[in-house]
Amino acid sequence: MDFAYPRPQLQRAQWTCLNGPWRFCWDDDETYRRPEDISRWTHQITVPFPPEAKASGIGDQGFHKVCWYQRDIDVKPGKDRVMLRFGAVDYAARVWVNGRLCAIHEGGHTPFFADITDMLEPSGRQVVTLRAEDDPHELTKPRGKQDWQLEPHSIWYPRTTGIWQTVWLERVPRTYVDKVRWTPRVEGFQIGFEVRIQGDPADDLAVEIQLSHGERLLARDRYQVVEGEVDRFIVLSDPGIDDFRNELLWSPERPTLLDARVRLLRGNEVIDEFSSYTALRSVHILRDRLMLNGRPYVLRLVLDQGYWPDTLLAAPGDDALRRDVELAKAMGFNGVRKHQKIEDPRYLYWADRLGLLVWEEMPSAYRFTRTAIRRIVREWTEAIDRDYSHPCIITWVPFNESWGVPELTAVREQRHAVEALYHLTKTLDVTRPVIGNDGWESSATDIIGIHDYDANTEHIRQRYGAEIPPEQLFDRRRPGGRVLTLDGYPHRGQPIMLTEFGGIAFQAHSEPGARKIWGYNRAENEEEFAQLYEQLLDTIIHTALFSGFCYTQFADTYQEANGLLNADRTPKIPLERIRAATTTSRTWIPGAL
After folding, report:
1. In CATH, what number is assigned to the domain containing residue 274?
2. What per-residue confidence (pLDDT) applies to 586?
3. DSSP single-letter state for residue 39
4. Does the pTM exceed 0.85?
């Protein structure tokens, strides 16, 4: 397993990965309340792979509500603080160290931590225990694509319980930087820089920040810490001429990252330091186009579920995350729509470094209750806070296809929920567009997203062609049988994008006894699959109404066999042929790009 430091934008040298073997047991009857209640550990599990996954060593996809983890760690008390961090635990977690409760967290996709400094035994041998509760039938918690039936069906996949991202220990000073946040402002060639200080109170604190691009020093500033924080804009020297400016701007075609070294000082003594990075990148909506760095930019996205056959929601390792970014780019896409998943920060790191745009989408709950909305608000707020500084993220999507709010046309409270999440997201991040509800029944939104799986290209031309007035599209045409905008929210000139289409199912090889495949459309052989993709992309690319598109989907995911790649990430047709259709729609020539 290759697991790199899990927080790439606040990376310290002193850390210990706790992935690997842990003791494990199910607790279906909820018999245990504390670690000392457990008399026998029935399994060994490989963290961070969930117990439903083969790679965990368990591979049990039955219904289980509660499970327990435990492992011994070697860490001696010292002058520093010791932090125990969890990337993600689905859904509700309680953590004990040496029998003492140290953390409680709810939310299956966001990180949490505990300061365990005062719980450490002098001997250096410590025991960490975690209880995870994840009711498989509970539909009021954000669960994304996790099926509530025993066997995955239609577009729903196996459940994920418990730990599914990296667990690690980290030593930090008694007074330390807890958070860093970057906000680019391309118009003024500025970088917003925020840090928050935690730990023991200390006087005469300052933060020193150094920004560089390769060997080129861009800024070295020092700011006084006031009331535990620093919040400043760093103004870079503006080259003026576009050619020189473009060298410092981040885009998929030129993913320029600015390296940062941050040091916390007490007087002239360095008491904390870490590495980070940021980028100069702007994204906004201007009339009917998305603008990247002040220029119209056509989005070529692919929908990515973020599942792997043997590890489910958890990535097999850092190399697998990097490979997924590389494959999306190799197929000609400049971005992905991460569907119903808050992705591992290491994926976002590779998207930042290699140049791939990301739409981040909140995993849905499927019942509309006050509890569901409170849970969504809390977890969505944590997700935005975690991922705000990644330049690859250009759009936030709180709701998809009215999931969890199925009566938007009739129920006032559900409309308010979508509008509230839109405005909350815009409040937490004013720098990115927000799609309130992607697919149909739009109200408050910066982009009109349409989901249409009709594979007949003539129907697509008739529905969205230049001769079709936009008002007719919104008033009379109903892709998926749903209205595109709610009453009181007419199209105001926002960009229109086809954010789900295609879904061509094709499986070249199936094993005896394999589950019946599912897809929106069907191809019988490789050549038919390739031609359907080429025809669809040719039609969509030349439909002027659309300022971007998102093809379904990146890779086969369990029974849903409509990926451009097989589940193991091997291509169904040559990558060069996919790329030619995705980018230029010209006839593919074997061996040519």
Report:
1. 2.60.40.10
2. 46
3. -
4. yes
